[in-house]
TrEMBL record:
Every Resolvase/invertase-type recombinase catalytic domain range: 3-136
Record-given protein name: DNA invertase
Family matches, as InterPro entries: Homeodomain-like_sf (IPR009057), Recombinase_CS (IPR006118), Resolv_N (IPR006119), Resolvase-like_N_sf (IPR036162), Resolvase_HTH_dom (IPR006120), SSR_resolvase (IPR050639)
Pfam families assigned to the protein according to its UniProt record, in alphabetical order: HTH_7, Resolvase
Listed GO biological process terms: DNA integration
Residues of the active site: 11 (o-(5'-phospho-dna)-serine intermediate)
Species of the source: Subtercola boreus
Record key words, sorted: DNA integration, DNA recombination, DNA-binding
Stated family: Belongs to the site-specific recombinase resolvase family.
CDD domains named among the record's database cross-references: HTH_Hin_like (cd00569), SR_ResInv (cd03768)
Gene3D superfamilies the UniProt entry points to: Homeodomain-like (1.10.10.60), Resolvase, N-terminal catalytic domain (3.40.50.1390)
Gene Ontology MF terms: DNA binding; DNA strand exchange activity
């Protein structure tokens, strides 16, 4: 039988992890890693240490699901990674234990719900883009410059008296906006002169 390794997390140093640590110790964890960091951060040093030390057959234990995952999708990805390493997962508050058949079933339901949510978001996004195209909108951010400002930017750019950054300063926008505006609004082609009669 493997070891139980606990993971506790609080968002700031002002918060107390004692409740989580006590619960994890009571659950039989032989070691508890305590993180003082927001769950939104990609890399968490104490979690990285735990994942480095945990071995196949061991179980990672948390007090509550949101201590491990930033979102349902992130949590599912984490649990998939643990399962691939033959590591169990247990959450005390939600009484989920992937080392049992019931816990594995709940995990698969979570995964299916996360996939369903992702499909819904994709469908809504595609439907919105289709509707926007039908109304003549091609997407992208609208220009932050008025038509007169676009003409001014074009004139200053063609005169080559100022840099693009300086033009942006004059019009109160970033250099990127100037470049984007000039690309969106190319200079009109010069009228062709008629050929002289031979």
């Amino acid at each position: 039988m493997g070891h139980l390794l606990g993971y506790a997390r609080v968002s700031t140093s002002d918060q107390d992890a004692a409740l989580q640590v006590d619960a994890l110790n009571a659950a039989g964890c032989y070691r508890v890693f305590v993180e003082t960091m927001s769950g939104s951060l990609q890399h968490r040093p104490e979690l990285d240490k735990l994942l480095d030390q945990i071995r196949p057959g061991d179980t990672l234990v948390v007090w509550r699901l949101d201590r491990l995952g930033r979102s349902i999708r992130h949590l599912i990805d984490q649990l998939h990674t643990l399962a691939e390493r033959d590591i169990g997962f247990r959450s005390l508050q939600e009484t989920i234990d992937t080392t049992s058949s019931g816990g594995r079933l709940i995990f698969h339901v979570f995964a299916a719900l996360a996939e369903f949510e992702r499909d819904l978001i994709r469908e809504r996004t595609n439907a919105g883009l289709t509707a926007a195209r039908a109304r003549g909108r091609t997407g992208g951010r609208p220009s932050r410059l008025t038509a007169d400002q676009v003409k001014t930017a074009r004139r200053l750019y063609e005169q080559q008296d100022m840099t693009v950054a300086q033009i942006g300063d004059v019009l109160g926008v970033s250099r990127t906006t100037i470049y984007r505006t000039l690309n969106r609004n190319p200079a009109p082609a010069a009228p062709r002169r008629p050929r002289p009669a031979v």
